[in-house]
Design goal:
Elements (H helix, E strand, L loop, with lengths): L1 E7 L3 H12 L3 E8 L6 H14 L7 E3 L13 H4 L21 H11 L4 E5 L4 H9 L3 H4 L2 E5 L15 H5 L1 H10 L10 E3 L1 H4 L3 E2 L1 H10 L23 H19 L6 E2 L1 H10 L4 E10 L10 E4 L10 E7 L1 H19 L1
Parallel strand pairs: 1-2, 1-4, 2-3, 4-5, 5-6, 6-11
Antiparallel strand pairs: 7-8, 9-10, 9-11
Helix pairs in contact: 1-2, 1-11, 1-12, 1-13, 4-5, 5-8, 10-11, 10-13
């Protein structure tokens, strides 16, 4: 059984990643924690609890940690993910309650109790993880592995010309995290899913239709570019209905910025890497982050050739297989949606 510690800022693509992991057989959520990012930490927690309950995972321990980046004010992104973080979707109010524990303490307690068993997946800014590493410097040795969605190396940023969103929200945290991995064994280095690979994950309206079909929905789920913005799904399947409404908002956002009527589902890819279900290749590098420059804050730089003279501290994904990834998504999430009705 794969067991995960997740830190999320849910988020449309975080939502898809959560649903995908919940749909995998023999997958355990040891804990899920909220970092501020796409929306504030309290909204992240509400979104995440509601999604876990929707997917039949109501008993996962969910905690909030930091409520702001380490050194700079919080920047959220309602224009990208909607005012509540999940596009046009209106999730039911969650029934579960948040853990009394702080997210950082929760991660450390879980990792210490199960050394070498838990894989960490971070699809949010690295704030909580940086704080956990401050408190427990040997966390990299306690975890089975780490997958990070963030950064941009040979690719234009999606927040500034050089910076990716998660890293830009808290560049100081990202800098601390990569510094903490310098000199660690290769197999312990985080696998980094940057925009170079995640923007190859282009989800299209056809994928939504196929998802609904795999779920056994009574009518086709058509999310089309000529339909009115904000049109709501009438699907008889709850998971399909909520995902469709969330993804429609994401399609509309990408079209508004001349990227086409599609969605880059960054966090789904990172989830598949963590779960070992998606094809990819990676290459070790030394990564550092510009934290303080007004022009370049959040820029990630990778030294693949050892020019800095420092050992690698990350494994950067260099290739993936979108066709395989989306076939896996449709099959796996479609099965869960069919079972949950």
């Amino acid at each position: 059984m794969a067991a995960f510690l997740l830190d999320v800022d849910t988020g449309i693509d975080d939502a898809l990643a959560l649903v995908y992991l919940a749909a995998l057989p023999d997958t355990e959520f040891a804990a899920v924690t909220a970092s501020p990012g796409n929306v504030d930490a309290d909204q992240v927690a509400r979104n995440t609890l509601a999604l876990l309950e929707l997917c039949g995972r109501p008993d996962v321990e969910m905690a909030i940690g930091a409520r702001a980046p380490l050194s700079i004010p919080l920047l959220t992104t309602p224009e990208t993910h909607g005012p509540q973080g999940i596009g046009h979707a209106l999730l039911p109010e969650p029934q579960g309650r948040l853990s009394a524990r702080n997210a950082v303490d929760l991660w450390i307690d879980k990792a210490r109790a199960r050394p070498g068993e838990l894989t960490a997946l971070i699809t949010a800014p690295l704030t909580n993880f940086a704080l956990a590493l401050r408190q427990e410097p040997e966390l990299p040795e306690l975890l089975a592995g780490v997958v990070i969605m963030g950064g941009s190396f040979f690719y234009q940023g999606n927040t500034t010309p050089t910076a990716e969103w998660n890293t830009h929200v808290d560049p100081h945290a990202a800098k601390e995290v990569y510094a903490a991995y310098r000199g660690r064994p290769l197999e312990k280095l985080p696998v980094v899913c940057s925009l170079d690979s995640t923007e190859r994950m282009e989800l299209h309206p056809e994928h939504v239709r196929l998802l609904a079909e795999a779920a056994g929905a009574a009518v086709p789920e058509l999310v089309l570019p000529d339909q009115p913005e904000g049109q709501r799904s009438t699907s008889d399947n709850r998971i399909i209905r909520h995902l469709s409404d969330a993804l429609r908002f994401y399609f509309e956002f990408h079209r508004r910025y001349d990227q086409g009527y599609l969605a880059h589902v960054h966090d789904f890819f990172a989830a598949g890497v963590a779960a070992g279900t998606l094809e990819y290749s990676a290459r070790p590098a030394t990564v550092d982050v510009e934290a303080d420059s007004p022009l370049l804050a959040g820029t990630t730089v990778a030294d693949f050739r050892g020019l800095w003279g420092f050992p690698p501290n990350a494994r950067i994904v260099t290739d993936n297989n979108p066709a395989q990834a989306f076939a896996e998504l449709v099959s796996t999430v479609g099965r869960l949606a069919r079972e949950r009705g």
